[in-house]
């Protein structure tokens, strides 16, 4: 964190308790004038401080942003989210993450923006990223695994996101739609896009892109998404604390990634099946080559979706668009 963010973090953690300029100066080893200047900058960014006589300052107002200090104040991780690139507007957090990964960004580096002008889904489909209303982020991870295991990380991420949502929202049940969506009452609130930088036999970096509709209201969505998209806030009927959501996802994601590396896919598969809205359903899977109709009966240890056809035959699909019939 920068010095300004260190200061902000202390106010966030202190909640309603005042902090004095002198305490901050001593704690951070800088002058009171320097502290005062940082407070000025924070005020220009929309933070509001109240002065309490002889006691110091209390943070009483925050702009609605997913800034690093606020994410940091909810983090319990060792690595994930400890290095954050926060931007107001980007083309896509995936592109920034690609550059950073090539330059050697550390495991767990987070790229997050208030909006994307060219947010992308799978197969170059566009991803709508309303300014200040969602979570548009990419996390760069560097697991020591072969490229063939990369798709499983989409499932690891889905489990982390769904559990983070469940721990924050209480008024609905999200479910995972294989492989990369999270739905609420049949509407999409989250998409995951995993990309990879790899050598022949080793993953160099995985870029896990996560898009979550958090605080949009129905009319924030463009016409083509009106009937297929929803946001956490619409379903929860409350404003979502985006920095808390981001940190909670990172907390779960580090836990599950480490567990996956230690114990393999089995524990993740169990968690995934617990939250799946696909297994047991009659589905239509459109792959690049064919359309398969049948009953989704499970995922394999490799994260492959198994579909049982009418004639009993079982087919495995690695990647497809799923329609639940
Ligand atoms: P997908 O290909 O499964 O889904 C894309 C489709 O979802 C679009 O064609 C559209 O129909 C629908 N869609 C677009 N925007 C939204 C939205 N906001 N809410 C609901 N449905 C929508 C899913 O791809 C993977 C998306 C990953 C997005 C993240 S955001 C951070 C990172 N940066 C980036 O450019 N992409 C990822």
UniProtKB/TrEMBL annotation:
Query: One Pfam family of this protein, by short name?
Result: BPL_C
Provide a Gene Ontology MF annotation, just one.
ATP binding
Biological process per Gene Ontology, one example term: protein lipoylation
**Gene3D superfamilies tied to this protein:** 2.30.30.100, Bira Bifunctional Protein, Domain 2, Winged helix-like DNA-binding domain superfamily/Winged helix DNA-binding domain
Residue numbers of the DNA-binding region are 21-40
**What CDD domains does its record include?**
BPL, HTH_ARSR
Q: Which domain of life is it from?
A: Bacteria
Q: Where is the BPL/LPL catalytic domain?
A: 69-261
CC terms in the record's Gene Ontology section: cytoplasm
Identify the keywords attached in UniProt to this record, alphabetized: ATP-binding, Biotin, DNA-binding, Ligase, Nucleotide-binding, Repressor, Transcription, Transcription regulation
InterPro entries per UniProt: aa-tRNA-synth_II/BPL/LPL, ArsR-like_HTH, Bifunct_BirA, Biotin_CoA_COase_ligase, BPL_C, BPL_LPL_catalytic, HTH_11, Transcriptional_repressor_C
Q: Name the catalysed reactions.
A: biotin + L-lysyl-[protein] + ATP = N(6)-biotinyl-L-lysyl-[protein] + AMP + diphosphate + H(+)
Q: Which residues bind biotin?
A: 116, 188
| EC number(s) recorded for this UniProt protein | 6.3.4.15
PROSITE patterns registered for this protein in UniProt: BPL_LPL_CATALYTIC
Protein family per UniProt: Belongs to the biotin--protein ligase family.
Listed PANTHER family: BIOTIN PROTEIN LIGASE, BIOTIN--PROTEIN LIGASE
Q: What does this protein do?
A: Acts both as a biotin--[acetyl-CoA-carboxylase] ligase and a repressor.
Q: Indicate what this protein is called per its UniProt record.
A: Bifunctional ligase/repressor BirA
Species of the source: Ureibacillus xyleni
Q: Which gene encodes it?
A: birA
């Amino acid at each position: 964190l920068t010095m300004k963010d260190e200061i902000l973090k202390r106010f966030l953690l202190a909640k309603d308790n005042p902090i004095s300029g002198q305490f901050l100066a001593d704690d951070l080893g800088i002058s009171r004038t320097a502290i005062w200047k940082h407070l000025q900058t924070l005020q220009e960014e929309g933070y509001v401080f109240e002065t309490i006589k002889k006691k110091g300052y209390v943070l009483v107002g925050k702009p609605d942003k997913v800034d690093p200090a606020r994410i940091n104040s909810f983090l319990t991780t060792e690595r994930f989210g400890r290095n954050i690139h926060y931007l107001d507007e980007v083309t896509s957090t995936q592109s920034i993450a690609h550059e950073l990964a090539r330059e050697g960004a550390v495991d767990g580096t987070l790229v997050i923006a208030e909006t994307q002008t060219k947010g992308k889904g799978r197969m170059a489909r566009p991803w709508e990223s309303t300014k200040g209303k969602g979570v548009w982020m990419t996390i760069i991870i560097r697991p020591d695994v072969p490229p063939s295991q990369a798709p499983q990380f989409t499932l690891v991420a889905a489990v982390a996101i769904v559990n983070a949502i469940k721990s924050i929202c209480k008024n609905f049940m999200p479910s995972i739609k294989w492989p990369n969506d999270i739905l609420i009452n049949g509407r999409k609130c989250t998409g995951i896009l995993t990309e990879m930088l790899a050598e022949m036999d080793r993953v160099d970096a995985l870029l896990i892109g996560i898009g979550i509709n958090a605080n949009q209201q129905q009319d924030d969505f463009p016409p083509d998404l009106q009937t297929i998209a929803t946001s956490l806030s619409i379903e929860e009927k409350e404003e979502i604390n985006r920095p808390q959501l981001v940190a909670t996802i990172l907390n779960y994601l580090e836990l599950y990634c480490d567990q996956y590396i230690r114990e393999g896919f089995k524990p993740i598969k169990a968690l995934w099946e617990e939250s799946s809205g696909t297994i047991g359903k009659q589905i239509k899977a459109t792959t690049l080559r064919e359309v398969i109709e049948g009953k989704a009966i499970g995922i394999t240890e490799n994260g492959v979706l198994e579909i049982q056809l009418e004639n009993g035959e079982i087919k495995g699909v690695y990647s497809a668009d799923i329609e639940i019939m």
